[in-house]
Design goal:
The structure is a single chain. The protein is an alpha+beta fold and about 475 residues long. The strands form six sheets. A six-stranded antiparallel beta barrel has the order 1-2-3-14-13-4. A hairpin with a 4-residue loop joins strand 16 and strand 17. Helix 2 packs antiparallel against helix 4 and helix 4 packs across helix 5. The N terminus and C terminus are likely disordered.
Length: about 475
């Protein structure tokens, strides 16, 4: 939904101030890196969260009938895809802050807060029948109103919150409210979209002298078949082939590929990479991999770079392990699938518990986690086998927190401002320009929109600025006094 209050001038002042402090070595901040290559959901798009580019004020009544004293900002976020491309997303986790600059991964509904939401298909219908799928002008014409982009985004977000979080969301602008009312009244169920790109399973094992797999390629791309390659450093002679042994450099949806490891290849491992350029399917969920941050749902995509990886390990004798990890939101944790393609048992430690996998056996191990709990563990095996899994369990929408205070606070706030937000310069840090739907970036027409990853601007900036003035004055006084003593 939103993270904190902020104004254009305050953002610029904050950026200038923080830049100066970092240059002086006084302050250094960074988001925690909680994602590894082996994190669940490695297939698909990875993107960095930007800001809300179009939207407006929305009044909120909680499930229990409590009305929030101030409207909140809601609308369309922009996200920049690693490798190229831009995504547009809406919030489906109203009570969780959005962390600007956090990295997100594309996942299926089962790995997000939609896993037990019977209205997930209705949210997709809204995305398929609202903004930005359809231009604001076309939606306004259908409703008999003059609908701006900001109003269209706010109206769409309000309708989504009704089904993602169960709140009563009413846009302040009447034309936006008409769009929300229309969407809620006509909503229908749709089926979950497929992944943009994935490889399953993501880890296989076997012995040299044959094909190891299969690995199934899943992609929504019709015009750009994923390129298939092995990572640099792969042992000589190891290649990716199809079921008949032919070399594979491209793959279609449903194709099965194998690692071909020649006989005599020293014990080892290799990695397969699939990559393509495609539009990510509307309705795919995006969850943070850098720490707790609100879950988002895709509303639009430019042509974007999507990737997926899989590994293979092999050995002549002994245990030959393979491990995959997936989120199990239904059970509140992770599902670790460990297999052994060798001829000896394989024993490993997982979070303080020992597990033994017999030759030819596959075992599924449940790892319970608390909501928003970060995890980081490594599974090791023979011949240097080592796989690290890191991430955050984010499977539920947050519950309502404290209601907003009417008095200013010097602490960061998650509550929206009721004051207008001026448009910001494209060069202002923390803002995003451009419009993935083919239009231009909008500005708010009333209340403050989410400024993800910022802080409660005015009081905090004023306090820090005042402190710097005092420090600067003290420094001048000290230098003058030192000079006088020297003379």
């Amino acid at each position: 939904m939103y993270s904190v209050r902020g104004r254009g001038a305050a953002r610029l002042a904050a950026a200038t101030l923080v830049s100066g402090l970092v240059a002086a070595g006084a302050i250094a901040t960074a988001a925690p890196a909680l994602a590894a290559d082996d994190a669940p959901g490695t297939g698909g798009a990875t993107a960095k969260l930007g800001t809300i580019v179009e939207g407006g004020d929305v009044k909120i009544v909680e499930k229990d009938g409590t009305e929030r004293p101030n409207p909140v900002g809601g609308g369309l976020f922009t996200m920049e895809v690693e490798g190229g491309g831009t995504l547009s997303t809406y919030c489906i986790d109203f009570h969780t802050e959005a962390r600007h600059e956090y990295r997100y991964k594309e996942v299926g509904w089962s790995e997000s807060s939609l896993h037990n939401n019977e209205n997930a298909g209705k949210i997709l219908w809204i995305l398929e029948n609202a903004y930005p799928k359809f231009p604001a002008e076309a939606l306004g014409e259908k409703l008999g109103v003059d609908l701006s982009k900001d109003e269209a985004a706010a109206g769409t977000q309000a309708a989504i919150w009704a089904f993602s979080d169960g709140v009563t969301a009413t846009p302040v602008e009447q034309d936006a409210k008409k769009l929300t009312d229309y969407l809620v009244a006509n909503v229908k169920d749709l089926e979950e979209p497929t992944a943009s790109l994935s490889l399953s399973p993501s880890s296989v094992a076997g012995k040299a002298g044959g094909r190891i797999g299969p690995i199934t390629v899943s992609t929504n791309s019709l015009k750009d078949e994923p390129a298939i390659s092995v990572a640099p450093g792969t042992p000589e002679g190891v290649k990716i082939v199809d079921g008949t042994g032919n070399l594979v450099t491209k793959a279609k949806n449903g194709d099965q590929v194998y690692f071909d490891v020649p006989a005599g290849t020293p014990d080892g491992a290799a990695e397969l990479k699939a990559e393509s350029t495609t539009t990510v399917p509307r309705g795919r969920a995006f969850v943070s991999i850098d720490g707790p941050s609100q879950t988002l749902i895709l509303a639009g995509s430019t042509d974007s770079t999507v990737t997926a990886k899989a590994t293979a390990s092999w050995a002549k004798t002994g245990a030959v392990p393979a491990v995959t990890v997936e989120k199990d939101c239904a059970k509140g944790g992770l599902e670790v699938v460990a297999s052994n393609a060798g001829d000896e048992p394989w024993t490993f430690d997982l979070k303080g518990t020992s597990h033994t996998i017999a030759p030819g056996e596959t075992k599924t191990i449940a790892v319970p986690l608390a909501e928003d709990e970060a995890y980081n563990f490594t599974i090791t095996g023979p011949n240097g086998f080592k796989k690290t899994f890191e991430g955050v369990l984010d499977c539920k929408t947050a519950t309502p927190g404290p209601q907003p205070s009417e008095t200013p606070s010097t602490e960061p706030s998650t509550e929206p401002s009721t004051e207008p937000t001026p448009s910001t310069s494209p060069s202002t840090p923390g803002t995003t320009t451009g419009d993935t739907t083919g239009g231009t970036t909008g500005t708010t027409g009333g209340g403050d929109l989410a400024e993800t990853g910022s802080s409660n601007a005015t009081p905090m900036i004023a306090g820090i600025a005042a402190a710097l003035v005092v420090i600067g004055g003290g420094a001048v006084f000290f230098l003058r006094k030192k000079k006088t003593a020297g003379n």
